[in-house]
Amino acid sequence: MSHQHTHGLDRTRGRRALGAVLALTATYTVVEFVGGLATDSLALLADAGHMLGDTATVTLALFASWLAARPATAQRSFGYRRAEILAALANGAALVAVAIWIFVEAIERFSSPPKILAGWVLVVAGIGLLVNLLAAKILAGAAGESLNVRAAYRHVLADLAASGGVIAAALVVLATGWRYADPLAGMAIGLLVLASSWTILRDSVSILLESTPAGIDAHDVGLRMAEVEGVAEVHDLHIWTITSGFPALSAHVLVRQDDDCHARRRALEAILADEFGLHHTTLQVEHVAEGQPVQITPLHRPDD
Question: Helix H segments across the chain?
Fold first, then answer.
């Protein structure tokens, strides 16, 4: 049996990036919320709501990252790494709630669009565009580190697009006086918020349900293991994700009576690490029972 533990994933860069972005988003959320109330702009208020979601997202992500860094214990052999995934799930659900509020408010405003102070909306949205550009640049380098950082990065990208939408709406109102541009921009921002929540919810639920990691085909992995010289059978194969960037595999492997179990285990570990990026493996390797026929168990895809 093998236990290759590679739990020491470095989250330091991600935490630093999240801390810097938290300071930016928290400050600008207050500015944008006050600006939205002062100008009576739904587009600004919608973007402020999204920015508030970003602030909550980053705060929760930092807390979850801190929890994930705590050492494993006898009761929690993987530590608190799943806290990151739970935080990402909460963030996705919060985005859905924000989107619903924006849609309800936009529908109400379509019946009687208020007059907005488009000039000030343009100024506040322009500041927001710069803030989001800076936040996106900070997070871009660490976005591949964990689902939480990736979730925060997607929030910021959506806010970047939202700031552009607010600017466009303000320009339309200034140029034409058409008040419907503001609730339309708010509705568009709501769609962006909803779209950004989908991937986060999908990925976090997939990890919590212990699905095979994206980019890894369990069928191909099983066949490759069965092709190794001396391997007679591979069964009880499971591949899942502990947390972002931490896939794991377990399997029961039978080898021929005259083979070295430890040598076959080491060969399988090397193949799994080199060809599939699976470094955390738990392999139970045993000899085929005396008199048991030596054969490769066929592996079937779910849709076969």
Answer: 12-39, 42-68, 82-111, 118-140, 147-176, 181-208, 218-226, 261-276
CA–CA separation, 204 and 61 (whole Å): 13
Give the residue from 152, 163, 138 showing the smallest Cα distance to 28: 163
Q: Tell me the pLDDT of the chain averaged across its residues.
A: 82
Quote the distance between the C-alpha of residue 227 and its chain's center: 34
Residue 97 corresponds to which tokens in the numbers above? 């709630």
Q: How far is residue 140's CA from residue 153's CA, in Å, rounded to a whole number?
A: 7
Query: What DSSP string runs through 89-151?
Result: HHHHHHHHHHHHHHHHHHHHHHHSPPP--HHHHHHHHHHHHHHHHHHHHHHHTTTTS-HHHHH
Burial of 142 (0-12, 13-18, 19+ CB in 10 A): buried
Supply the pTM of this predicted model: 0.70
- Is residue 156 within 8 Å of 91, Cβ to Cβ? no
- How does strand 280-287 pair with strand 246-255? parallel
**CB contact at 8 A, 84 and 146:** yes
Q: Read off the pLDDT band of 9 (50, 70, 90).
A: very low
d(CA 155, CA 283): 39
| Cα distance between residue 172 and residue 167, in whole Å | 9
Spatial CA neighbour of 87 closest among 56, 55, 54, 60? 60
